[in-house]
Amino acid sequence: VLDAMSVGVPPVAFAVGGLSEVITDRESGLLVPPEDTVAFAASTALLVLDRDLRTRLGAAAGERAKAFGADQMTNGVEAVYYRVLRG
């Protein structure tokens, strides 16, 4: 999902696990209820048919994916270590 988002492809995903943390529904992609294949298909069709929505969500998805890049993750882990070491 993050790979797609990083190149501006808005995801359609089931709202399970970490996907709900990565995707903000109707801002950086579309989330549907778990196992609701009808909603999944409808959301996918919506993105195919609505170019403006697809473009807007795709741009936001690209920005959102940056928060999960390797540099950001490394910086976050380092920050935790420094806080622990400073006690």
Order of strands in the sheet with the most strands? 1-2
| N-to-C span | 37 Å
Low-confidence stretches: none
The number of E-state strands comes to: 2
Task: Average the pLDDT over all residues and give the rounded result.
Answer: 94
Report the helical percentage: 55-70%
Describe the global form: elongated
Helix/strand-derived category reads mainly alpha
C-alpha Rg (nearest Å):
16 Å
- Number of helical segments with 4 or more residues: 5
Percent of sequence in beta strands: 5-15%
Order of helices and strands: HEHEHHH
Main sheet properties: 2 strands, parallel
What oligomeric assembly is this protein in? single chain
Task: Please specify the SSE layout and strand pairing.
Blueprint: H1 2-6, E1 12-14, H2 19-22, E2 30-32, H3 37-49, H4 51-66, H5 70-86
Parallel strand pairs: 1-2
Please sum up the structure shown.
With 87 residues, the chain is mainly α. The protein has helices at 2-6, 19-22, 37-49, 51-66, 70-86, and strands spanning 12-14, 30-32.
What does this structure look like?
- With 87 residues, the protein is mainly α.
- The protein contains five helices and two strands; from the N terminus they run αβαβααα.
- Strand 1 (12-14), helix 2 and strand 2 form a beta-alpha-beta unit.
- The longest helix is centred in the last third of the chain and has 17 residues, at 70-86.
- It is elongated and about 55 Å long.
